[in-house]
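Predict the 3D structure for this chain.
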Amino acid sequence: MKKITKTLCGVVGSVLGLSFLVAGCATVPSIKNTDSELIYNGNAAVMVDGYLYYGNAFADYSTFTSDGDYNKSVAVSYLSRLNTNIDLAAKSKDYSPKSVEKVADEITAQGKAFTFVLGDHIYYSTPNRQKFSDENGKASHYFNYSTIYRSNLNGDNKEKVYTTNGEVSQIETLKFNGRYYIVLLAGENLVKIEIGNKVSAETISDSAKSVAIPKTYQKKKDGSTLNWNGDIYFTEEKSDEDNGLSGSIVKKVSVAGSETKQIFHKNGATLKFVGRERDELFYSLSNEIYKIDSNSITGQPNFASDNNRFYSASTISNLNLIATENYEYGYVFTTSSNALVYATKTGKFGSITLKNGDTALSSYKILLISGRTIYVSTTTGIYKATLSGIFSGNGGNVEIECETIVEMTAIYDGTLCAFDKDYIYYYAKLETVEKDEDETEETTEETDDNYYLYRARVGVTSADGYELLGLTKIASRHTK
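Done. Predicted structure below.
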């Protein structure tokens, strides 16, 4: 078995349509998933009938130079599980709970994190560990590439699902006609992976520049939906110097099919998809942002039509639809200067300033939007704000007061989080705690500079209302 695994793992390039066993030893007791639907809570963690699966600590793969660095990091950054159905039995909010279990020796809390559960399998993305050869035949590690694994919920029967040969810029899991697909853009490789009892991967394009796919369904997130038309839209670049042709080509393909169709080309113009909300496509073209309802697309649509203009900018990011189950209010997004902007369904625009008391929040990251509530983080706090009142007017700049969910000394400066309606899950460094009465003045605590998983209640305003969930490197921070 060892010899076969080594041979397969040494294959240079992506693993297409291949799922094979790489480990088969259960590490924790088995549980039963009673949810028949995809479970996704965000890229940091996933909750299965009260059992939380998560990366114990954040790992920065950009610092890795060898496989030995991966092994050192995984000693604290492994895939964990915690039964939240029972009392966490922690000494206090600053101490690790008793019942943290190790599920797999793989890094899942990282810059390209993606974790979800379907049936009795957990799927997770890790930094790639295999070597790739360059054009000169020199093999090197590319930890910024990703390998997707799946295993049973007890860690047994671990399988490699897919290894990218580029850096993932987009990845989602989508359901269409009763089947489930992972769709990802890694470098210029647009790939779909059908998952279920068997796994099969197909490269849709090896020269894709951008893609428009809907967001992964989140049951606990207001406004999230499984409804979409099944069509994937992407762009490639045309270059035919002999005939003077250039510019972007827009293509579409059904997630359930293989035939791609070219539906648009404007010579010399660059079109790039910048977001998709349900079946509405957003794209940049000639320093303008456009949107088009993909359900209205027939034949060769005019993506450059003035009727499709949405916003005057060269690009936007963090596009989110503000919606409840039955009503769509509008959109929010950020500009290239990091301004937060809202757009009503009637085409009115304005900027949003988030306030924390008398001070405007700055340098924040958008963690998630659920219904009409936005959750953002800085390196010292996580906040929420209600956006419901801004979409009924005529646009204009608005100031919105935030509620503080939690404040800490050092919160991870990124968008790694999860959400289950009751709690928000995030990574932060350990807070200083007072010494116990039985500890002497000479007692010094071992240093631990890792970012561990925490949670905080979203419905309670309490600056210090957090709970440590990760198992720390420092034994004195473990609950006995």
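The helical segments are 2-9, 67-74.
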